[in-house]
Design the sequence.
């Protein structure tokens, strides 16, 4: 395997880095047309349309959409059917994720001014949320935890999960995760038709206020289209890790951390920055040796060859600068004083500090969310959190005295903008 | 003018209400194609493309894009050139908006578990933000305040405003508002080409991390397209007000409050709910009488006729229920105990409480933001705020002891998902 080596001393380093990071989700026009038609059909025909698409695409044979709902007792049975160790791990992860997310709960606030005017924000939760869970290989129970728990902590009253079950095959770990999180209803539907059912509501599937969760290109296109009718979470790109290491961590550990990102898919990106060139050689050697043992060797090799890089930097400060440019989804600080170093980081989805904190711990059970901004979007967005399932209403109660002062200001500005009814409305309140 | 009258006792009330609220922004495919081409061109040719489109669409005659930048001294001159009363009102509004938004600043947080594991979130501001301000009639200085101040309070280092100046005509109030808010740079460009310049960066216009601010259909389409490359704020629909009144407010006041929304544009929506049928008659009479005095009579008449309604409800509780279904952008509670009543409100952009609190005060100077979720999106979204210009990075520092416990959980779950590198990476940290 040939993995790229850069040095920040290279004259073409900036151009190389830019090219390395270049990734734009091609918006496939064909997919978009197919999705637009499915959504239109689901909006118009409801259950009937969802049932037809599901039977066709997932090769199921239901005569009513209601048959595709999974009962709570089936979810509980899935949980009880797990091997003890797996069940305990799932529950332990859920408990830690819940405990961390409870710290994110926002509260209403207000303050009263001297003249009695009250201002603030009232915080409320969304009523009903839809959670998309992919079927087949990419069906990750951890993804159910990470999406469902923040919603439940926020106080969402009804959480509706959709998961396609091609040929009727159900993933027991996913159903068990739904049981652990207290998902309220589960439908075995997927694709654009499931997104449409959640966004518009059908006779059987209730309309939700927001749709979250990962999915394939059809699901992503459907989410983009229904955005505005309902809220959506981010549309994620391929996963990435950036490791900054001072050269004093076991190179095998770092190699495996890079693999843990690369094994997700061929487009995943793993980058290592170190001021120690000899260490980069060691990690390269570890990669060559360890990849042979990996069941997902082919995916890892393609990912590291096509999109990976080992970069030699002048010093750790320069590594921080490059990291801030990259704004990585996952950032490992495998250095001596990671907490102090983290203050230099401006843009990252999650910061994993210290040699013991491998990204995998965060993916499953450390507590923070594993749904993170990808493709440099950490420059302007945040991990999924409880705050994504709460929203704010401004509170304004102007006292009679306050209206005298504010009314004049508002009227002056309203006349300046040519909005006379605004001005008159404020002036009516003047005594 | 004929304004709709409904009663919740009507057998077809639910259907009528649904139809009244029905509004979906038609996504015009022609606009979308034009915008896609402009964006592609700006991305490829930078300054040259922006200059060409600007000279063509805005009938300007610049030979370099730099000529279209407005200097800080010109902004200050605009502010100093305002009539004293207008300048004072602008400054007073800015001060109040700033003071309110400072309450929204989020801070980093973390906690340490018994075994020394640290978890939390680091909060940072966006580096650079683009603010779109429409040219021509809809150029509102208040909109500059409401978008620029939260960004500055959040700590955004560079705020770049774009505003088209067709035929070179500059709106002095808008420039003055930019001066008051400390906008860093202003370019006289607009349309999709301005959004493209901000999103991709050109030789002259720096690339930003997020684009906010209202615009026409071309601007909205461009924002949708660059979403992902940069962050965007919401894509707003027509403005709406819902007034709930117990019948004891001066009907002229309520009529004028409804006008203050209706005068924005023909698609704006004004709805009044009251349990007092006689009061609805009085308001209808006030509307007939007062509309004659309004300079924007035609817009108000069209808006109220096409999209307005006076609705008779059983009681105020039922009004709250209907309001929660509508999830209005602006909600006036013109009732006796507005603060107590506000607890029943689950979904609204802003809640204006009490007879003295007309919406116009909030539009300009009460303090809270006037950029609010429209078209029922208050079910899942919030007013623009400081939080839209800050973002979070998860902090995870697992202690050596913590890694022993978490590593086993993570490995168990990772093997369950078939991700062996994840499992191995966690297991390396086990002693």
Sequence:
């Amino acid at each position: 395997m040939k993995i790229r080596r850069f040095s920040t001393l290279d004259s073409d380093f900036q151009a190389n880095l830019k090219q390395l990071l270049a990734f734009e989700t091609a918006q496939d026009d064909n997919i978009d047309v197919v999705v637009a038609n499915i959504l239109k059909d689901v909006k118009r025909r409801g259950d009937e349309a969802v049932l037809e698409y599901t039977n066709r695409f997932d090769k199921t044979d239901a005569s009513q959409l209601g048959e595709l709902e999974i009962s709570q007792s089936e979810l509980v049975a899935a949980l009880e059917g797990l091997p003890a160790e797996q069940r305990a791990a799932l529950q332990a992860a859920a408990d830690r994720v819940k405990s961390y997310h409870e710290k994110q709960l926002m509260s209403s606030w207000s303050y009263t001014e001297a003249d009695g005017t009250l201002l603030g924000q009232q915080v409320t939760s969304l009523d009903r949320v839809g959670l998309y869970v992919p079927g087949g290989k990419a069906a990750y129970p951890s993804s159910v935890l990470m999406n469902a728990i923040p919603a439940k902590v926020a106080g969402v009253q009804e959480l509706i999960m959709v998961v396609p079950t091609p040929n009727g095959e159900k993933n027991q770990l996913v159903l068990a995760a739904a049981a652990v999180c207290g998902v309220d209803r589960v439908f075995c539907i997927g694709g654009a038709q499931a997104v449409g059912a959640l966004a518009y509501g059908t006779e059987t599937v209730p309309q939700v206020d927001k749709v979250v969760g990962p999915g394939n290109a059809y699901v992503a296109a459907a989410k983009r289209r229904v955005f505005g009718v309902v809220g959506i979470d981010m549309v994620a790109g391929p996963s990435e890790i950036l490791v900054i290491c001072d050269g004093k961590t076991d190179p095998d550990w770092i190699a495996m951390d890079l693999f843990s990102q690369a094994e997700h898919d061929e487009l995943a990106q793993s980058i290592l920055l170190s001021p120690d060139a000899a260490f980069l050689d060691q990690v390269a050697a570890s990669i060559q040796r360890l990849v042979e043992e990996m069941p997902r060797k082919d995916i890892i090799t393609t990912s590291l060859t096509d999109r990976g890089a080992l970069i030699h930097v002048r010093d750790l400060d320069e590594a921080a600068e490059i990291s801030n440019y990259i704004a990585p989804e996952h950032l490992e600080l495998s250095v001596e004083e990671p907490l102090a170093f983290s203050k230099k980081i401006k843009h990252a989805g999650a910061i994993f500090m210290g040699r013991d904190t491998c990204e995998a711990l965060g993916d499953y059970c450390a507590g923070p969310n594993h749904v993170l901004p990808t493709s440099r979007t950490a420059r302007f967005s945040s991990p999924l959190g409880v705050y994504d399932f709460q929203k704010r209403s401004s509170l304004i109660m102007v006292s009679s005295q306050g209206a005298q002062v504010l009314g004049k200001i508002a009227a002056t500005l309203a006349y300046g903008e040519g909005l006379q009814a605004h001005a008159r409305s404020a002036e009516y309140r003047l005594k």
Q: What stands out?
A: Chain A touches chain B through 122 residues (CB under 8 Å). Chain A has three domains: 4-25+237-366, 29-109+124-232, 398-428.
